[in-house]
Design goal:
CATH superfamily of the largest domain in chain A: P-loop containing nucleotide triphosphate hydrolases
CATH architecture of the largest domain in chain A: 3-Layer(aba) Sandwich
Helix content of chain B: 55-70%
Number of strands of chain A: 9
Distance between the termini of chain B: 27 Å
Strand order of the largest sheet of chain B: 1-11-4-8
Shape of chain B: globular
Largest sheet of chain B: 4 strands, antiparallel
Number of helices of chain B: 14
Strand content of chain A: 15-25%
Oligomer: heterodimer
Radius of gyration of chain B: 27 Å
CATH topology of the largest domain in chain A: Rossmann fold
Helix content of chain A: 25-40%
Order of helices and strands of chain B: HHHHHHEHHEEEEEEEEEEHHHHHH
Largest interface: A-B, 31 and 27 residues
Number of domains of chain B: 2
Radius of gyration of chain A: 23 Å
Number of strands of chain B: 11
Chain lengths: ~290, ~450
């Protein structure tokens, strides 16, 4: 693994200042953030536009260089090629060569990872199938919909069986089923010990899959912690039970009111729109 | 691993050029230009003129087009990919920026090699077809074939030991006390060498001059030798000069050929291969027959003595060597373009590439300014002392000359158009200088600065 004390990403006082042509400071995009991401974690980086999420991701990828502070990725400098060999990255936009087909683009990136021969062929074929692009494997990327291009983006990100996976808006442009599949895939990767860093505005998705999150604002981390800890309201308790007969419910509520002096709120347990959509779509046979 | 990654980038560059129809468009433009230009440009209505037009214009056109597109492709190859962010994803892979640079360079080079191969095929086919389909006599066709479709090595005449003769004369002048005051021995010797040369090449009415050539050891397969010469007249009217060449060998084999040539116009004289059989020295004497003329002619200037053009090899191999030299030039331009593309945004990189093209087009003037220190020759008055600004501009030109020097030094087009040999040595030197040293310098600058560049 090569990580320090099980830490896959470690940032200490990480700062990034963008300068103008004359080297004068223009914008301080990241202000001394501290970040520790452990092996097997799914970590979410949240924040409004311009909060410093992308800058942080780019520094972790070695595309931008920190102005000050320390940053290690898998125990190495982010610019170290050996570290990059263990990282998979899926950008928000599919920055792919539109004249290449899905297979060609995966072969190209596989070559950059030094894969060759039968091993390369097997990995590419497996990923093409895994992301559901078997039928479109020989079509140029330029003809793909955004969702299909995102699938290619996801496949290229997994080519090297990475230890660290960075995803920028991974579910953007995907239909709910593909979105669920991606989330399930990420959860299974995390169970296999992969570390995942996600940058997204889809808070519901982040809540579904992230173990820990950090919220950035104006280049600083405002809040950081485990999702379940952040979402808990310790002053409020929720009781769930199969709908009882009306008389029993009334007795229960009266009892609680007598004991606590509070009349509890009663409503039906809700479902998410995602679960309704998936149930509806999967029940009907596909016209294709 | 490094090779796999570099090769992957090179293949991607070629594949993108093919898929985006860029290669097809460029190949079509080349074919149209190579075939169309000789039809549009009129020669001197001779077969030799037509062949000269084909060779000169097609090679110049191909070199110019490929130079422009190489710079453009190399610039855009990186800067455009940075701007549309495709390179972000590539650079998150375990790829050194050196490998990216090298892969792009090899890709651009592979495209150029393919286009140059196409150019060579077209030029070769057009030249042979033009001679084959000409309505001229077989003798004329043979002469043109000998002149253009045979790579020839230019042999200079055996020159007297000017230094020794001048040194002896200078010694005598000094000893006799007739040497000009304040002149050093070296200055006197140099002046005498100049005078000896002028004396040797000056032919008065009715006079003559003899040149001897050492023949090469290589066996001649029945091809003619060609004597190439040019003279200037002291008279402004430039009337033709009648003369007679007398050819002889060390076996005193004499042949007389009468000629009439115009001053300032390059002329050639075919010498049958039988003249060179079993002999080491070929002597040629130019005897003026117009003894009533008042004009004095000078058979050669400082740079252009008569030359004996001896067969060296076939046309296609010579063309191949010439195209290889052009490829070496393009390798350097690709390196320059990539360096611009790695450091600058697309518009600025294109502007820089355009500037390089202007430098290339002005390479002759730049060389003249850098070496002579003269910007222009005033029509009247005296040259003034160089000001500080003049000196700065002169240094600037000397800097430009460093860039353009190998491009002007290794230009195979005039050689190919004149049927002269592009030697293996020249090809090797072009490879060493252009594809080697200059490309490495451009690469080192480009890669070093690219490594410092953030892709954000």
């Amino acid at each position: 693994m090569g990580a320090n004390n099980g830490l896959v990403i470690e940032a200490r006082n990480l700062t990034k200042v963008f300068r103008d042509f004359w080297r004068r400071p223009k914008v301080c995009a990241v202000k001394g953030i501290n970040l520790e991401i452990k092996r097997g974690e799914i970590f979410g980086l949240l924040g409004p536009n311009g909060s410093g999420k992308s800058t942080t991701i780019k520094m972790i990828l070695g595309l931008l260089y920190p102005t000050s502070g320390d940053l290690t990725v898998l125990g190495k400098s982010p610019r170290d090629v050996a570290a990059k060999a263990k990282i998979g990255f899926m950008p928000e936009e599919s920055y792919l060569y539109k004249y290449l087909t899905a297979v060609e683009i995966l072969n190209f990136y596989a070559n950059l990872y030094g894969l060759s021969g039968i091993a390369k062929k097997e990995i590419v074929e497996r990923l093409i199938t895994q992301v559901g692009l078997t039928a479109a494997r020989n079509r140029p990327i330029g003809e793909f919909s955004k969702g299909m291009a995102r699938r290619v983006g996801l496949a290229q990100c997994l080519l090297n069986d990475p230890d660290l996976i960075l995803l920028d808006e991974p579910t953007s442009g995907l239909d709910p089923i593909a979105c669920r599949e991606v989330k399930d895939l990420l959860l299974s990767l995390a169970r296999r010990g992969k570390t995942i860093l996600i940058c997204s505005h889809h808070l519901a998705d982040m809540q579904d899959i992230c173990d820990r999150v950090a919220i950035l604002l104006n280049g600083e981390i405002c809040t950081q912690g485990a999702v379940k800890d952040l979402l808990i309201n310790p002053d409020t308790l929720r009781l769930s039970l199969q709908s009882p007969p009306r008389e029993s419910l009334s007795a229960i509520l009266n009892y609680i009111e007598q004991e606590t002096g509070q009349r509890p709120l009663v409503d039906h347990a809700g479902r998410t729109l995602e679960s309704v959509f998936i149930e509806t779509v999967t029940r009907r046979p596909s016209p294709l | 691993m490094m090779l796999i990654r570099t090769f992957a980038i090179a293949v991607l560059t070629v594949r993108e050029a093919v898929r985006s129809k860029f290669l097809l468009s460029l190949a079509s433009l080349l074919v149209a230009g190579l075939v169309g230009l000789p039809l549009l440009i009129a020669g001197d209505n001779t077969l030799a003129g037509q062949i000269q037009v084909i060779l000169t214009y097609t090679l110049t056109f191909a070199t110019a087009i490929l130079s422009i597109t190489t710079l453009g492709t190399a610039c855009g190859g990186v800067s455009a990919e940075i701007e549309d962010r495709r390179l972000y994803l590539v650079m998150t892979k375990p790829l050194h920026r050196t490998e990216l640079w090298l892969g792009k360079w090899l890709g651009v080079l592979a495209l150029n090699a393919a286009l140059l191969a196409l150019t060579g095929l077209i030029i070769s086919a057009m030249t042979r077809q033009a001679i084959h389909s000409a309505k001229d006599s077989p003798q004329v066709k043979r002469q043109v074939t000998e002149q253009f479709l045979m790579a020839r090595q230019a042999l200079p005449p055996i020159t007297p030991d000017y230094s020794r003769i001048a040194a002896e004369a200078a010694q005598r002048l000094i000893q006799s006390g007739r040497a000009p005051a304040k002149m050093t021995f070296d200055a006197i010797q140099q002046r005498l060498i100049e005078e000896l040369k002028i004396q040797r090449f000056t032919i008065h009415p009715g006079g003559s001059v003899e040149f001897s050539f050492q023949q090469p050891d290589a066996k001649n397969n029945g091809n003619d030798l060609i004597l190439s010469y040019k003279f200037d007249s002291t008279r402004p009217e430039r009337s033709p000069v009648a003369a007679r060449w007398t050819l002889g060998t060390d076996h005193a084999h004499l042949i007389h050929i009468a000629v009439t040539n115009y001053p300032g116009v390059p002329a050639t004289l075919a010498i049958a291969s039988s003249m060179s059989t079993g002999t080491n020295i070929l002597s040629v004497t130019y005897q003026r027959l117009d003894d009533r003329s008042q004009a004095t002619i000078i058979m050669a200037d400082k740079t252009q003595e008569p030359e004996l053009l001896v067969p060296y090899g076939g046309f296609e191999m010579n063309l191949l060597r010439g195209l290889f030299v052009i490829l070496c030039r393009l390798a350097f331009l690709a390196a320059l373009g990539l360096t611009f593309g790695c450091l600058l945004s697309t518009p600025v990189a294109v502007f820089a590439a355009f500037f390089v093209l202007i430098l290339m087009a002005s390479a002759g003037y730049i060389e003249s300014v850098a070496t002579s220190g003269v910007f222009f020759v005033p029509h009247e008055g005296h040259a003034e002392e160089l000001t500080r600004l003049d000196k700065m501009i002169l240094h600037l030109f000397q800097g430009f000359h460093l860039v353009t020097m190998p491009l002007t030094r290794f230009d195979p087009v005039p050689l190919l158009a004149a049927g002269r040999v592009v030697s293996g040595e020249m090809a090797l030197l072009a490879f060493g200088w252009l594809a080697g040293l200059y490309t490495v310098i451009a690469a080192l600058i480009g890669i070093t600065l690219f490594n410092r560049r953030e892709l954000g």
